[in-house]
Hints:
This protein is 16% helix and 31% strand.
Amino acid sequence: MVLRDHPLMSYRDIPNWPPHWRPRGGAVEQIDGELGVLTQVVVAGEIPNEQPAQIYLFMQCDGRSYVSVLLFSDAVFCREVGELMKRYCGRTLEEIGGLDLSRLL
Length: 105
């Protein structure tokens, strides 16, 4: 099962993939989807006073920077996905959406 279709890629039964991207540092409109290249991943447990079921994704698309937050109902799955995504910085979001997560079922 690939990441984009995994049943735990959700928060309160609402899928969290594909990401909804907000621009960083500029008046560019919000975009959605498996766009651009992942540049950084921060798992919320690494940020003091944050709930552990969030992953912050940063990406570049067409020379612009964007950020997205993925919310998860399952905190353990959130951390596992976050650690996996860190290894894929520099790769496209489309490639990441196709990662096999069968072992995490």
